[in-house]
Design brief:
single chain, Rossmann fold, 10 helices, 8 strands, 15% strand, globular, binds cytidine-5'-monophosphate
Length: 226
């Protein structure tokens, strides 16, 4: 592997996204939001009228997906452009998360996204956020983190995020959705959600982002990555 990779895996809402953004920014490394790729395949599938269990056309779509990530100005989130259309808000919505977890069970789709994900590993390094970064995509990563938090706490965090964005959601429905998604992600046959044998498990329950970031940064130093 040419560039060092920090693989960060874990269930929805464990705080991976925020941790990875902070890490990438702090280290000046590239960031791969692999969930966004699965969300985009789901969105594009719907747009093209492809049933979300139809593996062959979805795999073709995943392989040829016309997507651009345009970094925002300081503090602004990255814009996501799918087939020329700005889908930045749509891609982060609850509904596209649900589409993602449906297409993510298809081996052909996962295979088609492999090369695209590996291409993000460029010098000086990559922070990769996902479910199978340490177990499938970047098995040689010198640091693998598996970030967990209780389902209740994850639902609450997500609830606050969505309310702040003006989406109307119920906490009970979010908790149910998180449990269903965890189950689907950890029980699927290909690349199920599980820690790599050499992953460090970090439990973020009851911790703020600064504490989680501090713990992981200490590991980055320990491993001699900076
Ligand atoms: O991380 P995010 O919530 O954006 O991921 C959405 C869904 O995409 C997950 O619930 C999971 O089903 C799928 N996913 C995956 N492998 C990844 C990243 C995401 O299967 N590496």
């Amino acid at each position: 592997m040419s560039a060092p990779v920090i693989a960060v895996d874990g269930p929805s809402g464990s705080g991976k996204g925020t941790l990875c953004q902070h890490l990438a920014q702090h280290l000046g490394w590239a960031l791969l939001d692999s969930g966004a790729l699965y969300r985009l395949v789901g969105l594009a599938g719907v747009k093209h009228g492809i049933p979300l269990n139809d593996e062959a056309p979805l795999s073709d779509l995943a392989r040829t997906l016309d997507v651009r990530f345009e970094p925002g100005e300081a503090g602004e989130p990255t814009a996501v452009i799918l087939e020329g259309e700005d889908v930045s808000d749509e891609v982060r919505s609850e509904s596209s998360g649900a589409l993602a977890s449906r297409v993510a069970v298809l081996p052909g789709v996962r295979e088609a996204l492999l090369g695209r994900q590996k291409a993000f590993a460029v010098s000086p390094g990559l922070v990769a956020d996902g479910r199978d970064m340490g177990t499938v995509v970047f098995t040689g990563a010198p640091l693998k983190i598996f970030l967990i938090a209780s389902a209740e706490e994850r639902a609450e965090r997500r609830y606050k995020q969505l309310i702040n964005k003006g989406e109307s959601v119920s906490l009970a429905a979010l908790l149910e959705d998180i449990r269903a998604r965890d189950k689907r992600d950890s029980e699927r046959e290909v690349a199920p959600l599980k820690p790599a044998d050499d992953a460090v498990i970090v439990d973020s329950s009851g911790l703020g982002i600064d504490e989680v970031f501090g713990r992981v940064l200490a590991l980055v130093h320990e491993r001699g990555l900076i």
